[in-house]
Amino acid sequence: MDKPKVFLAHVKEDGQWVCRFYDLLQSMGASPWMAPTDIPPGAVWRDAIRRAIHSADFVVACLSSKSILKRGYVQREFRIALDISQELPTGRPFVIPLRLDPCDVPDLQIGALNFRDLQWEDVYAEGSLQRLANALGLLTVPAARLMLRIKGDFCSISGALTAGPGVPKSVPPDTARYLLFDLGGGTTDVSAGLTLSAGHVSEGTQLSSSLYQYLDEYQASVLATGVDRLEHFVNEVDGSEMIVVPEGEFVTGDPEMPALFENQLASGDFRKATTGRFAISRCQITNERYAAYLKAANQATPITVDESYLDHPVTNVSWLDAVAYCRWAEGRLPTEVEWEKAARGLDGRPYPWGIQKPHERYCNFGNPHGGTTPVLRHPLGKSPFLCYDMAGNVWEWCFTEVTAAERSSITNLNAEFSGEGPLHVVRGGCYAHEAAACRCGGRFFGSRDMRSPLWGFRLARDVG
């Protein structure tokens, strides 16, 4: 469906709240319009507003103790909207009064219709977010459905808008260490002319505008991971940098995942899943780490490690090969539920980096390089847990075995998948396949002894 156009009638005194509400509607799949944000330079205000109301699917009248008493254009907006609503089919909602505080709905009469004849909504009322989404026709929109699943059926509009503090001028030590860890242990604050290092961060460390982008990323990460500080450590055996993913629920599933390949499993609708606490490597296991394993474990294997690409992910490893490496590294393969949580965080985003469609800035897909790329090549494509390449580069083996019920539902498999041996899940897309394969919710599989130049893996570990 087309995005519903929602005109927001308000007074400038309520502008800060309405701006946040505007962003909420956008994130739920609507197309909001408000003045002065959407009035182009040089346009006549009254003409632009009148056109916007006439072209809107809905008008949300933001009522407050300020707006109902103020004379001026907001009252004209209410009158225009009421006038238009009388021309629409009976029962078709158009004007939605939304109370921002405990004010009275104005006694405003246009023709046979009075403002007080309309059912109003209260932003603080339990369940008001779902009722508004229903009134705007958003309940079938995946973005709105996902938000309602995350927030809960009883969430108020005000509750959905609740956010943390704005960008601070100083940050506590743990926050600064997080930022610096993700920047590789230290960075230079250009305007202040000094270098911050993870080992020398004091209370109230001052950060200038050159680091605000990382604060924004930090605050977004808190929402997507549920923690204000990510734990990390280095695996002593193979040297992999490991991120600790906390226990708890997250949103899984992907109703928009298209059918792509024969070896594909159903992704299902959005739903909640739970994991325990675990650690996962930030990067796919590289040729360099796999070569060190072969040497240390004195393994005889048909796998050839290309030493010209030591920082690329190892490929042509079977599920059995990957399990053997993980056992040597005193870890294991992640389950597919763990993999998905590390890839998309708690909020059910379609891609590790968010909602933007795949681009070469984010990941390696569509075969632009004729093969794999270095595992640290795409920092903009990191997941909320700061893991690289969870979309594209190479498919990743998971420990999870395809269930008997799922296997019985699979038809028309070619010979390499139709044997009697166990099938195991692979996730994440690869360099040779299309953008849709990069969606976090995509589920695919292979037999445990298969080797492919498109498949690799990463390490996971149990943590206390």
Question: Unreliable segments (pLDDT under 50, ≥5 consecutive)?
Answer: 163-216
User: Helix count, per DSSP?
Assistant: 12
Main sheet: strand order: 2-1-3-4-7
**How does CATH name the architecture of the largest domain?**
Alpha-Beta Complex
Integer tally of domains: 3
**Major sheet description:** 5 strands, parallel
What structural category do the secondary elements indicate?
A: alpha/beta
Give the distance, in angstroms, between the N- and C-terminal Cα atoms. 47 Å
CATH superfamily of the largest domain: paralog of FGE (formylglycine-generating enzyme)
The counted number of beta strands is 22
CATH top level of the largest domain is Alpha Beta
Helix content class: 25-40%
**Spatial extent as radius of gyration:** 26 Å
Q: Which percent band covers the strand fraction?
A: 15-25%
Question: What would you call the shape?
Answer: elongated
Mean pLDDT metric:
82
Under CATH, the topology of the largest domain can be stated as: paralog of FGE (formylglycine-generating enzyme)
Describe this protein's structure.
The protein is of the alpha/beta class and 464 residues long. It has three domains: 5-161, Rossmann fold; 170-225, no CATH class; 232-462, paralog of FGE (formylglycine-generating enzyme). Helices cover 26% and strands 18% of the residues. A five-stranded parallel beta sheet has the order 2-1-3-4-7, with helices on both faces. Strands 15-20-19-18-21 form a five-stranded mixed beta sheet. β5 and β6 (113-114) form a beta hairpin. α2 (45-55) packs parallel to α3.
